[in-house]
Amino acid sequence: MKRLKSILVLLLAMLMIAAFAVGCGKQQAEETPEETPQAEPMKVGFIYVGSIGDAGYTFAHDQGAEFMKKELGDAVELVKAENVAENPADAERVLNQMVDQGCKVIFATSFGYMDSVIKVAAQHPDVVFLHCSGYKTAENVGTYFGQIEQPRYLSGIAAGKMTKANNIGYVAAFPIPECIRGINAFTMGALSVNPDVKVKVVWTNTWYDPAKEKDAAKSLLEAGADVIAQHQDTPGPMQAAEEAGAYGLSYNSDMSKYAPKAILTGPVWNWGPYYVKTVKAVQDGTWKSEQYWGPMSDGIVDLAPYASFMPDDVKQLIDSKKADILSGKLNIFTGPIKDQTGTVKVPEGTTMTGDEILNMNWFVQGVEGSLK
After folding, report:
1. Please, are residues 159 and 249 in contact by the beta-carbon 8 Å criterion?
2. CB-based burial of residue 138 (10 Å sphere; 0-12 exposed, 13-18 middle, 19+ buried)?
3. Secondary-structure percent of the chain, ordered helix, strand, coil, rounded to 5
4. Please, are residues 347 and 364 in contact by the beta-carbon 8 Å criterion?
5. What are phi and psi of 369, to 5 degrees?
6. Cβ distance 140 to 95 under 8 Å?
7. How far apart are CA 199 and CA 187, in angstroms?
8. For residue range 277-329, what is the model confidence (pLDDT) as tens digits?
């Protein structure tokens, strides 16, 4: 009987312990909040015409993409495609691949992708497409670019002050409005400080061909140029300038490390803040199609740091003109402006409209070269 009582006491104790454990477990479960599932990152695609390592145009865009990723963190995932040719077969294939990979925003970063973007965007209305430097839009397609002609003008001042021969060479990619207005702005900047200069243009019909672009610069140097400017994606023209003991004005990014004895400064792109703003707008549902053409005051375009060997008075002059542009006091496309033949294209007191600047297809007086 005593043994039976002991067993009953033991069983009762075990039941009390079990009940206590269940109660504690229930209380702990009630006190532990449920974990909120992490949202999937938004996939953002970037299509590049060149290599990320080109030190120029594609490099600058990729720096912007990485800036955006750093700012937005785990909320975004980058998807990149390099060296995508500007033809419908390649461009449309890569655009569709990015859509299939789940990209909700796609940045096509070169002019030649425009028609492919419009076509693919029509098939995928739930994806936002941004096309750089183009002019065609749709409900889910916007365009973006910056007024790079503003720092181009300033770099022209540097060239006009530093040339001794009054012969400036300009290695340019394609005879399209984007390049033409840059050449014109550069030339007007040079002429504003040196009315005797001539700017000689050579077209390469390439964006990224280091050897060809360097050879084009060599031809200009052999013809007497002592300053070389460029609208190309590689530092090839700057390297040719340094080898010849000439000065250079680079483009896209700070290329000074590739030709440190030649490069005075150069127009640069700062795409990062635009990419952050645009992706945030898509994320929060406020994005709307637009044609963005940002001025230097937005920070999207600027000048690379000045070379240590540029005279202080030249730096101060450029800074002064930059301040005038930023304040709106100086609009570089205000007349009188003459074309190559001496015909007045923009009368005195008249300022070109945005559309006129974006579609410019004539050279200003002072440019030597054809539009072919």
Report:
1. yes
2. middle
3. 45, 20, 35
4. no
5. 155, 165
6. no
7. 6
8. 999 999 999 999 999 999 999 999 999 999 999 999 999 999 999 999 999 99
H or E element in which residue 358 lies: helix 354-358
CATH topology of domain 149-266+304-368: Rossmann fold (3.40.50)
According to DSSP, the residues that pair with 334 across neighbouring strands are 351
Q: How far is Cα 128 from Cα 106, in angstroms, rounded to an integer?
A: 6
250/286 Cα distance (integer angstroms): 37
Amino acid identity of residue 263, one-letter, is I
Residue 153: which H helix or E strand, with range? helix 149-162
The contacts of residue 230 (CB under 8 Å, 6+ apart) are 170, 171, 172, 213, 217, 237, 238, 248, 249, 250, 251
Query: What's 42-146+271-298's CATH class?
Result: alpha beta
Give the whole-angstrom CA distance, residue 263 versus residue 362.
Answer: 28
Rounded to 5 degrees, φ, ψ at 166 are 60, 25
- Beta strand 337-338 with 344-346 is antiparallel
Domain residue ranges in the chain? 42-146+271-298, 149-266+304-368
Q: Can you list the positions of beta strands (E) in the chain?
A: 42-47, 76-81, 103-108, 128-132, 141-146, 167-172, 198-203, 227-231, 247-249, 263-265, 267-269, 291-294, 301-303, 337-338, 344-346, 367-368
Whole-model pTM over 0.70: yes
Structure tokens at 143: 């365009």
pLDDT digits (tens, 9 = 90+) for 115-152: 999 999 999 999 999 999 999 999 999 999 999 999 99
Six-digit token pair at 340? Answer: 């190559």
Q: What does the block give as tokens for 69?
A: 């990723």
